## 1
Amino acid sequence: MDENPGVSEEYRMVSPWPLFVALGIPIAEIGILFGLVPLAVGGLLLFCGSIAGILRENEYVSSAWRGLAGVSVFVIAGGLALWYADTATASDLLIRAYSLIGTGVLLLVAGVGGDLFARDAEPGL
Amino acid sequence: MEITGQLLLTVLMGAFLLGVAAFLARVEDWRSYTPLGAGGGAVGESGYGHSEKPAGLIRWFTTVDHKDIGLLYGAYATVAFVVGGLMVMLMRAELTTPETAVLGSATFYNSLLTSHGITMLFLFGTPIIAAFSNYLIPLVIGADDMAFPRINAIAFWLLPPGALLIWAGFFPLPDVIPAQTAWTMYTPLSAGVGNGNQMNVGVDLMLLGLHLTGVSATMGAINFIATIFTERAEEVTWANLDIFSWTILTQSGLILFAFPLLGSALVMLLLDRNFATTFFAVEGGGPILWQHLFWFFGHPEVYILVLPPMGIVSYVLPRFSGRKLFGFKFVVYSTLAIGVLSFGVWAHHMFATGIDPRLRASFMAVSLAIAIPSAVKTFNWITTMWNGKLRLTTPMLFCIGFVSNFIIGGVTGVFLASIPVDLVLHDTYYVVGHFHYIVMGAITFAGMAGIYYWFPLVTGRWYQRRLAKAHFWLWMIGTNVTFFAMVLLGYGGMPRRYATYLPQFATLHQIASLGAFLLLVGGIIWIYNVAVSWIEGPRVQSGDPWRLDETDLNTAEWDWFEAKRETSLAATDGGEDVTADGGQEIEDDTAE
């Protein structure tokens, strides 16, 4: 800090993703808790999409599409867990399980499809 | 009806997601000149050549700068404080009469009571501390930013949805009523058992909102621990780490162990309510299990809220005493001791539940023991002031007010730690008076000390001195009138959490309401002073507005302030924006 006075004013970092990560969580939570399919699916898409975006932004993944495909695995696993739990409990968890599995499949298709079909910014690299 | 509802929800959700996608596509424009990935995943490493922030609202929605996020936390906490304050003013108005003549219904009073507590603790208390720590910790330890800037932004943005969910019952939504569980959410009431109305979805929404604020606090805590451990400048060692950073570090450790437990307990409660589990049912884990889990979080929460304000007082009070903090090491040790002991006292909230007397005795012993490190701090503050050259500026007045109120709040607490006294005073206004002396008289006072002390640092302007002093005296008197009246009410046997009371308590209740009115007036003065001074207060004329150099008590954040002033002066002289060290051209801001 000493050799670069006031320097933190000049490191400018912005990211569009945190806001949407934070919005996705409550929407998905409400959707899953109350079994409201549109909210569960929409919230999860928003949350997972933003996670993929933030992973891309940090270059933890080479493309946002691959990030999407990666997080889809967790969502599908969560859905399968609910699907399994449905048979073990008296509560009706099926609609929630289908929401998660459906969202996961959507994410997976989008991720794989995007990776295959989206045009590269720098072809050949 | 069901189908159209789902359809409407789907359309709305789809439109919202499209809006988000459109916004993100537009954002691509300015991503091209703020290459965020430049660090290659190393979050602490910053790329050079960034332009200034995007203009307008977009800046605030997309910022990951610790100072901006600190200001967002501050603004959020202020809004929550106003909401929680207005809620309690309605309650105090109701309590001027023994009947429910003012609000008309006890259920509305119970809703306000629940929301006031949760709002003040989770939406004001934790965020106002995060405001200070976000803004100041990187500055005082010489870090460029927080260790995880994006996590920092996520942690903040979880809070507004959390607040909306917690307050959801008050909004005109069909079939949703506010939670009336009190902030402790004791089962079986909060599990919706019985013939009451607490099976309502409003309680679920409140629990979800609370869960979100817990996630937010945990993310923030991890960030502070990582920042303080790994991002310190070379010259900042453990030996000379400042007291505020020590308290934030300890607080973050407490959050890390306490809040995930609250989150789990809330999920268990939600499962009990919605999926017929029996965690807290009599035939399952039992209602007392909730109290154990809740207070295992809840009592550390008290220290989560009080340690950083103690840090602020330990940091600010010596500046105006003209001497260094007396017994610095012991203040740090006592902070750590409180941090450890705070996990061993939870059952003192449960002395009246019929738990094993041997357990009770051990919890009483630890509860009494935790008074010792607190007293160490108190004596250190007093000794710092002893024979010092006191300057009674507004921040100093609030610090002294903190010490004074903390002594009353603390001593009333020591009595409560004793089982026989607790069994008499349990669930009376004595308890309410005791903890309000701490949360209002101490924690909020320290927050105000911090706000006034760092006001020049943040805004580059001065607040109005006379208004600030009026604020202090109104609050000092108001706090003591309100909460001492409550202590007396408790001695008289007035139970807490009731909208109505026996006529014999009327006078003391009216006195308490009068004190609350003084607090309201002081609060209005505070908001006015801060808002107006921020816009048009006189500009600070030096990098050392508190003249700390005279007593050799300057600290790192004012060096940063001075450097920033010099940089901006140089920039104004040149008539152009400063290019960063990388020397790259700054492109036009095309985002707007």
## 2
Amino acid sequence: MQQKILKGATLAAVFGLGWSAAPAQADEAVAEFYSGKSIEMIIGYSAGGGYDQYARLVARHLPKHLPGNPDIIPRNMPGASSRLAAEYVYNVAPQDGTVLATADQSLSVAQAMGDASLTLDASQFGYVGSPVMQNNVLITWHTSGIETVEDAKANPAPIGATGGSTSSQYPTLMNELIGTQFDIITGYPGGNDINFAMEAGEVDGRGSVNWASLVPLGWYEEGLINVLVQIGLQREPDLPDVPLLMELAESDEDERLLRLISSPTTVGRPVFTTPNVPPERLEALRAAFDAMVEDPEFLEAAANEGLAIQPVSGAELQQIVDDIIATPPAIAARLGELIGVAD
Amino acid sequence: MDASILGAAGEAFSLLLDPFRLMMLGAGVLMGLFLGLVPGIGGLAGMALLLPFTFTMDPYTAFAMLLGMAAVVGTSDTIPAVMFGVPGTAGAQATIMDGNPMAKRGEAGRALSAAFTASLIGGLVGALILALTIPILRPLMLHIGSPELLAFSVLGITMVAVLSGSAPMRGIVAAGLGVMLSMIGADPQTGTLRWTMGTFYLWDGLPIVPMVLGLFALPELADLAIRRRSIAGDSNIDTRSGMWTGFKDVIANKWLTVRCGALGAGLGAIPGMGSAVVDWIAYGHALQSVKGAGKTFGKGDVRGVIAPESANNSITAGALVPTIAFGVPGSAAMAILLSVFLIHGLVPGPEMLNDNLSVTYTMVWSIAIANILGAGICFLFSGQLAKIAILRYTLILPAVLTFVYIGAFQASRNWGDLYALLAFGVLGWTMKQLRWPRPPLILGFVLGALIERYLFISVTRYGLDWLARPMVMILLFAGFLVLAGPVLRHLRDHGWFHGIARKIGMPRFRARDLFYVLVFGLIAYMMSIAAGWSWGARVGPLTVGWVTLTVCALSFANQTLTRGFSETQSKDGELPAELHMDTTTDYSDLPLGVVLQRALAFIGYLFGFMASMAVIGLIPTVPLFIAVFMWFEGRENWKLILGQALVLTVAVYVVFDRLLGIPWPRTLLGQWFPHLSFLPSV
């Protein structure tokens, strides 16, 4: 018995030593690989949007924490709501850890729903981390008379949306599963246009908006909007009394379905690398990301640009994406039927 | 206007006088002039490029630099349009119509000078309108909903009738084709992927840059390669005297200049209505309102240069209106400017018109000062620039073609851009040769998308009630008037229905009629695919498709059935006065065999460029292409060849690789020899 324990201790000691020695070696190898190289940050959207801003912020601050301190060069590759970039990173880009990317948080949900346009498997990307996670919300204008989900069940209300985006998906699901009577007016080219239509009284509300992008407008504090529901896996600290979409489900099956559509907000603005990156480099990228989000210099730069930081680690991202993809096919297929899926 | 507003305007002016801010404004202006000069890249790329530099600036400086850049792109984009017939940005297409014929006549100096003066005045008019309307922007705009935006777009598309010259039905077919092409991609109504042919490239629709460059730039460059002469041929070149004449031209047409400036600002305020159509609408307006325009426009009338140039410089001010007042970007470049607001903690909306009024007025001043600086700099160089028209084509063509390729490629950074460029090049060249009007295609492309969007919203939201809104009624009536004039005149010229009936005889067919068959077939094919979509996705394409097919058939019948009559008439020497809405090229001095041979060689160079890009990458292709072209076409001396190759390659590398950060496609060379990937774009 004692021998066994001793043996165990020896083993532990050996492993322990190994554990402490290996990272140092790996670090050196990683540093040697990255030093003098440059990393490309492929951004799946055009310049100026939220994904772009976060990706450029990361590109500026990550090198400091990465062994070998390579430059990171942002390159915008917009198209097909970032699928073009995601497919490029999955299929074409070199898989040695010299390519980072950011793309749509909903890719894994589209994959789970069996989107035929995707050849990629989102769980194969090496997730580095997301600087932020934020819920989406469904809002109505203060003059609409629709202040709660109950009001929306009792009265029809025109809601501005863009076809094929979350702004039409959320109200469609609520109409189908919860019994709201939203009259979904699709065709608006973007969120700002819906905001204007709401102010001008053309529509009563907006089907989806990122909470963080709404905060600077000050509309919530001034009482200009009602937040009916938030879409995410946990409530925003600012919105403790607004229900989560999945909490409104009337059956377990519906709850699974609404959880699936609510998961991407947790993925935030993901930064990932190609599949098959050598594990020590992926680990180094993740460690650098985790160190970066603690770095006061990074936090100050983010604050200066008005970007909120609520980090999600690479390992967490990997877990969330795996969970999304593991959704039972029947549920994912039903979601696809309800909100439509590219084929 | 009360004192607080004047105070804010004055305070804004003194804020801008800070030397650092003025310097950054100047830097923005230089950048804007450069981007306008290079075909295919314009204000949008400039915004993306300069944005990161503004993070550390205060908001006044950031806006001064960005708006300074955006405001003058429309000043310098005239230069390639006039000199080569290649639009520097989409906003300079209409300038080609009369500017390029002037350059070919040796009047480049006059055309450039008139264009810069008109740009300056147009830009100032835009800034003034913005300054005066700031206090009433929000209440004014709250009356403009989707139905009104729809009516504006309909009014815009009625210009097709004016811009089709003597071929209204062919104009409508071209416009219909443009509308159909605009519907490619994920539609904003249902999210259906329309005609994407299984590629991601088409998800966001065809980008307009390769389309404009293909339709207008490639045909002109092909002509240059076929004619093998300098642009101005043997004409005398005016420089000093021409510049003075051009300036006086604008003064003589001051009201046209001001009207078009106001038009540009007004239309620029409508989201989605960018410079690609505003220049055409201004040109159409001039064509309608200027006396005798029907006879001289398209043949080098300076008023055809003044109108679009004045309008495309005031667009920036107009596009700022919805951006400042409601945070709705008036153009794609303004969408990037919006992020500057947020970075500096400014919220578009009421605050910009109260608490932050001084910021808003620095924007107005920035635009005004930038226009003065930009026009001034262009003036200084226009005497030298005009001399480009006498350079050999072997010096000009490789450089311009290189930029056309790269300009098209940076639109969405995809091989698809280059295929689109070539496809539209062939289409544009064919349309030009067969005398089909090209402007309606662009009008249909830009406005068709807007009309479908706003019609869908208006009908789902208001049913038919939207038609009863007063502003909608006024605008639609104005559109009716624009349409009625040319249609009635056309009918009258042909002796009303009786006269037309008289001309009908046995159909005669020519090889050129094949183009009808191709267009008809393409549209029918697109409709057959559309028939399978959900109602919201197919209603637009099918409606437009049926109208286009009908008019296409009518136009075909008109051509073939009246051909007997018109051919006898022209034999008798009674040629009816024709207004052809396009530049024309005359190869009659060259034997057909030579024309074909040179055209094939030109196409060979186009494909060669792309093949080389696939194998060794875009940047190494630049010097190779220049050397091959200059040596084989012109036997230029090697010093000149190496000099030009080096300068252009470095310029392309710095601008497109380092500054714009374009992700280059993978090359074969890079796959075979991964070690070579340190070379840019390999």
